[in-house]
Design brief:
Helices cover 29% and strands 18% of the residues. By secondary structure, the chain is of the alpha/beta class. The chain has an eight-stranded parallel β-sheet. Strands 11-18-17-16-12-13 form a six-stranded mixed β-sheet, with helices on both faces. Strands 20-28-27-22-23 form a five-stranded mixed β-sheet. It is globular. The chain starts with 6 loop residues before the first helix and ends in a 6-residue tail after the last strand. 55% of the residues are buried. The N terminus is likely disordered.
Length: 767
């Protein structure tokens, strides 16, 4: 083991002990702490080691892969004292009753053999995704597109309720990785590219999942696991689980911001980034895990690894020579629970490391306290299982909210007057995404790589929804996907000629293109362009002279700059889940109105991938070298873009003061008027631009958003409360600073200038 890595945690502890501790992220509860200490002092070394380990349910499966083998359960709990299990059998959704029965069996054995409840965790990122009858919502990228905090809350409410109904008290959600690289295959799991949008939505979901009191979580709420701490979404290569290189000021200012917001909101656990930042594997990064979170925030929650990532410290990253060194490196850096899916002998290795002095007893006890504290806060010692009633499981309210979220998330990007469609029009539907629930849902849906058609046939695909809404709908796919999960990119284009022939009699063509579902590393790709077969489909259809409505059903913005001019309208539905087809039919017919806006930048060129908050030095107007803060680079569509069937006018942008100090709060107001003939919703976005700074400033940053609904002719005044400290940035010295000078606040194409009259530098790492 590299000798310089192990003392780092001790060094950080020494620094923290000499500095005043901040107020705890979660207020301490005397009863909770007393229970933790009471259990801890009775535990053997082997029992303590077992609490630090989480295994995949597959280690308990019998030969049918549908039930637990009692003998295996006896070994895992009785011999190894394992404290946590995750996932579902055979990587497939099970009923609520089957899941609950399985967890009851584990809990009863855990209480019998070691007197400590097991904690069961599941990946639930857009609803109860591993329960066959559970409620699924649009993926997080869609919720970001609504710019409506309510949907993050309502999804969290439903997810917590239905997870608890299946005896699951811990969900690995929300996903908070900033989706700032469109090549990355997990972009769709995030709320988008912007730190403020991500923080606002994730905080609402966290509060909804855990409830009002994180020290006492009731039987209708669950513990969250924020993921993936942090900087996971910007790998240098664009490939999943590969190294990232992030400037420390960006790491603190942008990537840490959503996690900080949720830690402060009481998040009980966090899952760690599988890759590395600036050459240091995050699972071995004591500065981030112990320093930034446990010490600087005085956070008493639990860090859990991602899948087998302790092994990756020696198998992939080569910062440890073997499994034991990797365990010591991770635990000493701040890891509290090891997700080691298949190997219970890591429990034995932890015992050996403690006896050898390579993991101190103090660090071991600290990690065990964090595991026990989580279980006490969840009430698992008093109620390892529970018999509460859950009458609202899979209820109409959850379904209606999921549909409404899908409606508000689907983004109209282009409309040359073809939409809304006449219900009597002859509509030809084509493309590989037209008749697939799997494509609408994306990954983490019933199965890891995604599936829906086999588990949820009662929901409508895009084709089925259009057939139900319009009078004359015909269909020929032209291109079809290979439905093998790991072969999601494989396509069969042998049906192109049939599609071209079938389209000749149509009035309008709805071409549904994009991606089949994928998740994590299997979703890596080498070309962000929409596939050649699908582009050939659109080009061939364009020769027929029929108007084309291009429907993009995708987890990331696939490049379409060469075919977009061929289309009369473009709609990006992203991954709207089970009600996404119904939502699209309602929007295309005009029964509903579009209000979604892009939560990411939709790039146009393969070598020009960037985010909306690029540096001013990246874009320059030719006249006198002046910067245009309203300009954007040559993109397909910018962040925050989205059309409607009505129009909105902005006026009277005002700020409460034209100068301010660091302690002030600015009140910014703007009037928004529906100038069209239809009721519509508008996401009102407030931006700031720092005109001169000691580091090259971003062109603009999102500072506020509100979703409003207006009747034709109605005007509403939207008011934002903007703390001056929100305009601060992390300087080259690593400190937060607000510098005297001019700022521009903008909203709806309007701008107003304000001046900061003082320079303020904060000594605390977080403001």
């Amino acid at each position: 083991m590299k000798k310089y890595l192990l003392p780092l945690a001790a060094m950080l502890c020494t620094v923290a002990c000499n500095a005043p501790k901040p107020s705890p992220a979660i207020p301490a509860d005397k009863a909770v702490e007393a229970k933790v200490e009471s259990v801890l002092k009775k535990m053997s070394l082997e029992e303590k080691a077992g609490q630090l380990v989480q295994l995949n349910i597959s280690v308990l499966e019998d030969d049918t892969h549908e039930a637990i083998d009692p003998a295996k359960l006896e070994v895992i709990i009785g011999q190894y004292k394992v404290g946590s299990i995750l996932n579902v059998m055979h990587d497939a959704a099970h009923s609520r009753e089957e899941t609950a029965a399985m967890i009851r069996q584990i809990q009863e054995k855990s209480m019998e053999l070691i007197g400590i409840p097991c904690i069961y965790g599941m990946d639930m990122i857009h609803g109860a995704s591993y329960l066959t009858e559970g409620s699924l919502f649009p993926q997080e990228i869609n919720l970001g597109a609504t710019f409506n905090r309510g949907y993050a809350k309502w999804m969290g409410d439903a997810m917590a309720y239905e997870s608890r109904a299946a005896q699951v008290p811990w969900v690995f959600s929300p996903v908070m990785d900033l989706g700032r690289d469109p090549r990355w295959p997990r972009l769709w799991e995030s709320f988008g590219e912007d730190p403020y949008l991500q923080a606002e939505m994730a905080r609402e979901e966290t509060l909804a999942l855990q409830g009002a009191d994180p020290n006492h979580i009731d039987a209708y709420h669950v513990a969250v696991s924020l993921k993936h701490f942090m900087g996971y979404g910007v790998p240098h290569t664009g490939k999943d689980r590969t190294p990232a290189y992030i400037a420390e000021n960006d790491l603190r200012e942008k990537y840490f911001a959503p996690f900080l917001e949720c830690f402060r909101a009481g998040a009980l656990t966090a899952m760690v980034n599988s890759a590395s930042i600036n050459g240091v594997p995050t699972h071995a990064n004591a500065i981030l895990l112990t320093g930034w979170v446990k010490e600087q925030l005085n956070w008493d929650g639990l860090f859990v690894t991602d899948w087998a990532d302790i092994d990756n410290l020696f198998v992939r990253d080569h910062v440890a020579a073997d499994k034991k060194e990797a365990l010591a490196l991770g635990i000493n850096a701040g890891i509290d629970m090891i997700m080691d899916p298949y190997d219970p002998t890591c429990c034995t290795a932890i015992v050996e490391l403690v006896k050898e002095g390579k993991i101190s007893k103090a660090r071991l006890d600290d990690a065990v306290r964090r595991v026990l504290r989580l279980k006490v806060r969840l009430g698992l010692f008093d109620n390892p299982v529970w018999d509460n009633e859950y009458p609202d499981y899979a209820c109409d309210k959850f379904a209606q909210t999921s549909y409404a979220a899908a409606v508000e998330s689907e983004v109209l990007l282009k409309n040359n007057g073809i939409l809304p469609l006449n219900e009597r029009a002859k509509i030809f539907v084509t493309g590989p995404n037209a008749n697939s629930l799997r494509a609408l849902n994306g990954g983490w849906s019933y199965r890891w790589q995604g599936s829906a058609d086999e588990f949820a046939p009662q929901y409508n695909t895009i084709l089925e929804a259009l057939q139900a809404r319009f009078l004359h709908v015909t269909y020929e796919p032209g291109v079809v996907y290979d439905e093998t999960p790991m072969a999601w990119q494989n396509e069969d284009a042998s049906g192109l000629s049939k599609a071209f022939a079938a389209a000749r009699g149509a009035d309008v063509i709805v071409a549904c293109v994009g991606e089949n579902s994928y998740c994590e590393t299997p979703g890596n790709m080498d070309d962000l362009n929409l596939s050649a077969h699908q582009k050939a489909l659109v080009r061939g259809l364009a020769t027929l002279g029929k108007p084309i409505v291009l429907v993009l059903n995708e987890g990331r913005p696939r490049l379409i700059g060469d075919i977009e001019p061929l289309c009369a309208a473009v709609v990006d539905v992203m991954l709207p889940s089970n009600y996404g087809g119904d939502a699209l039919a309602s929007l295309l017919s005009g029964d509903e109105n579009f209000s979604g806006k892009l939560p990411f930048t939709y790039s146009k060129h393969i070598n020009a991938l960037h985010t909306y908050d690029y540096k001013v030095s990246e874009h320059r107007e030719t006249m006198e070298g002046s910067y245009n803060y309203d300009a954007v680079m040559d993109v397909q569509w910018p962040f925050g873009y989205g059309l409607s069937y009505t129009t909105f006018a902005y006026s009277n942008l005002q700020v409460s003061a034209d100068s301010f100090k660091s302690s002030d709060v600015l009140r910014v107001s703007v009037d928004v008027t529906n100038t069209g003939k239809r009721t519509g919703k508008e996401a009102v976005l407030l931006y700031s631009s720092d005109l001169v700074a000691s580091l090259i400033p971003d062109v603009k940053r999102l500072r506020g958003f509100e979703k409003i609904e207006l009747q034709p002719g109605e005007t509403h005044t939207v008011t934002f409360e903007l703390p001056a400290s929100a305009l601060a940035f992390v300087g080259a010295d690593g400190k937060w600073r607000l510098e005297a000078g001019d700022f521009r606040l903008s909203c709806g194409g309007l701008g107003v200038m304000v001046k900061c009259t003082e320079t303020k530098v904060w000594e605390t790492p977080n403001i």
